[in-house]
Amino acid sequence: MAIYTKTGDRGETSLASGKRVAKTDVRIEAYGTVDELNSTIGWLRASLAQDAAAPEQVQEQLRWVQNKLFNLGAELSEAPGEWIKAEDTARLEEWIDRIQETVPPMRAFVLPAGGEAVCRCHICRTVCRRAERKMIEAQSGDEGLRFVNRLSDYLFVLSRYISHLSGETEERWTQE
User: Helix or strand or coil: residue 62?
Assistant: First the structure.
């Protein structure tokens, strides 16, 4: 089977529902940004695989997140079914709460800086926020939006956790 179909050569693509839309359609922008997020999380996982301080549990969590992002892409492409559930968002909240118990309390805003894995977390977080904005623009489902909103929180606390495990000092924002 060929990977190319030639059906998009004129700037259109099909949603899972069969509807043809422009490749610039806001729904395509939304799930394209979710796909970009998924790729940046893969890049983060590659970095964490080289980091002795990163627990395997984080890899497992991120692998789960990547699968859920494929589900979210299916939802955004109008595939029938319930793709993102309240339990998925609740799982992220549990992880956030557990991480928050292990890192020092935040007393100031922190710069998106540090080691390579920490910086990649921040890149993932900002792509996640962009995906959220695109989803809002596309008027996508409520649970998918909650999931992505919580995912950006998870990526932020994950950056703090990795920094903490690596013994890095977080750089505080200073108004200069």
Answer: helix
